[in-house]
Specification:
CATH architecture: Beta Barrel
Number of domains: 1
CATH class: Mainly Beta
Number of helices: 1
Shape: elongated
Helix content: 10-25%
Structural class: mainly beta
Strand order of the largest sheet: 1-2-3-4-5-6-7-8
Strand content: over 45%
CATH topology: Porin
Length: 155
């Protein structure tokens, strides 16, 4: 019995500190150039005005535009006023993109911006725009644009 109590006693500070940490999970659903886009990211609070984390986004492809799978890391500064959160996402990662003619892997930046509105203490809803660029790929430049509905949950 004392082992269970000791274990719980050691775990309580970790659970309490996890509750105090401001980490977020963002879910995305929207459209890219080639069709439906869906994804998620995890953001840890770095400072009162910024966070960092990783993303995974999947874009459908069709004859109207490219699609693919993007994975990488990001920094995200925030401006928070009156329940609104205006943010800029600067990231870098891999993009496995495909068109009707070819499939390729690109390495390059992600630039995004968005705004969310606080609905409850832990839930925000808003819109984001994400732009994936290829530096070391053919073609170079912007590869995928998307507009996304964002649901953010504070852990």
């Amino acid at each position: 019995m004392w082992k269970v109590l000791a274990f719980l006693g050691l775990m309580l500070p970790a659970v309490a500190s996890a509750k105090k940490s401001k980490s977020y999970v963002n879910g995305y659903f929207g459209y890219g150039q080639g069709g439906i886009a869906i994804g998620a990211d995890y953001e840890m609070k770095w400072d009162k005005v910024a966070g960092w984390g990783g993303y995974l986004l999947s874009y459908g492809s069709s004859d109207t535009g490219p699609g693919g799978l993007a994975v990488g890391g990001f920094l995200r500064p925030h401006i928070r006023k009156k329940g609104y959160d205006l943010h800029l996402t600067a990231g870098f990662g891999l993009l496995n993109y495909e068109t009707q003619a070819e499939s390729s892997t690109a390495l390059g930046p992600l630039i995004g911006f968005g705004c969310t509105k606080k609905i409850t203490k832990d839930i925000y809803i808003g819109l984001d725009s994400m732009h994936h660029y290829g530096w070391f790929s053919e073609p170079t430049g912007i590869l995928i644009n998307s507009g996304l509905l964002t649901v953010r949950y504070r852990l």
